Amino acid sequence: MDYNSNRKKLVMPEYGRNIQNMVDYVGTIEDREERKKAAQSIIDVMGNLNPFLRDVPDFKHKLWDHLAIMSDFKLDIDYPYDPPSPTLLTSKPNKIPYKHNNIKYKHYGRVLIMMIKKAADYPEGPEKEMLIQMIADHMKKCYLTWNKESVTDDVIMTDFIELSNGKIDIPDDFRLKEVKELIPKQKKKQHKRKNDYRKY
After folding, report:
1. Cβ contact 85:119 at 8 Å
2. Taking a C-beta distance cutoff of 8 angstroms, is the pair 163, 116 a contact?
3. Per residue in 89-104, pLDDT tens?
4. CA 42 to centroid of chain Cα atoms
5. How distant, in Å, are the alpha carbons of 5, 51, 117 from that of 132?
6. Could you please report the per-residue DSSP string of 96-125?
7. CA dist., res. 137 & res. 178, Å (int)
8. How far apart are CA 200 and CA 193, in angstroms?
9. Alpha-carbon gap, residue 113 to 186, rounded angstroms
10. Which tens digits make up the pLDDT trace of 150-177?
11. What's 165's DSSP letter?
């Protein structure tokens, strides 16, 4: 038996072994013009096998790139596009410059802390009060998400003032939403059994 495990590993498995065999065969054609015609036929078949590529910009370009990759960049033909470099497959991607700033209260998240700092510079007025209310309620929700135990409003307000570097004054009559308002309980779906008995 000729098992796939004993065969040559497919470079691009999404096209299948038959297409790979066709690409390998094209490389053995001596006549350059016939080799180009055969390569064009393979491109047409590859396009039919993957119609979703038609919605991708420059999908023909992608197909020719895939052909070059499947031939191990050894197919000697006049490509309609510049073929990719072999180093493209071996080169490592650039590192993403992640921010490594330490967050004291990670359960609130970086974005919420940035919102608090923005609110501190916001002009005084009803809009700022509404913004503080929304941020504080969200802080309580975040706290309860990571810490299932109950939390007092005093803890949230203390953290709020600390994260704002003392720039935001919280009124004495300030109140946060109740837990049931922030995290409503999900209703359990009741599955009704249908009576499958038929009356004759």
Report:
1. no
2. yes
3. 778 888 887 766 677 7
4. 32
5. 62, 51, 11
6. P-------S-TTT-HHHHHHHHHHHTSPSS
7. 9
8. 21
9. 29
10. 778 888 888 888 888 888 877 777 888 8
11. T
- At 19, give phi and psi (nearest 5°): -65, -40
How many CA atoms, within 13 angstroms, populate the side-chain half-sphere of residue 177? 18
Token couple for 166: 């003392």
Which amino acid is it at 129?
Answer: E
pTM comes to 0.48
Cα separation, 111 vs 122, whole angstroms: 16
pLDDT tier for residue 200 given thresholds of 50, 70 and 90:
very low
Looking from the CA of 5 toward its CB, the CA atoms found within 13 Å total 1
Write the CA distances from 66 to 51, 52, 53, integer angstroms: 15, 15, 12
